Amino acid sequence: MTQTATTAPADIVFSPAVKEIQTRKGSREGYARVEETRGWRHEVDADLAGRLAEATSFYLATASADGQPYIQHRGGPKGFLKVLDSRTLAFADFSGNRQFITQGNLSENPHAYIFIMDYAHRRRVKIWGTARVVEDDPALTESLMPRGYKARPEQVILFTIAAWDTNCPQHIPQKFDAADVAEALAVRDARIAELEAEVARLKGESAAAV
Question: What is the DSSP letter of 41?
């Protein structure tokens, strides 16, 4: 479903079939109140921008014209998934295994979905929208390429946001990136070395006094 002037973000998130099941299982009334009050967000705000700036990994879901689903991982340095404007995200698509399933799907079905998992803070972001591949814009590709990152950009994927939401941390295991753990351990080891040196100095002063 493509968002139009009369299509609310909630209608993208909750199809009629979803709403029917919510009604049967008792959650429709609660979500209806959410739709009438807070609603589903459809533009980048400070919260989403901050999360995107820290993301080093996300999953991009697409489907073929007949609905065959596919999920592809995308990774890079912090900020590689960029905000172009309040409704548009973009990233340089690096050369990979050359199966081109995502690109093939988008050529016949523009509907797409981004899922970002932040294990360290136990939070996730879900973004519904449409996407398209841009192959013939070297300037755009260059502007989206992370500086100093060793990868070959093959094209650009532009993602137009239709709706986005966050989830509670329930059932998300807390995990940390190896680089963050290594940095924390280095700080700890430096502090231990500093304290050991201080202890040795004090012992030396004590022995000299005796």
Answer: B
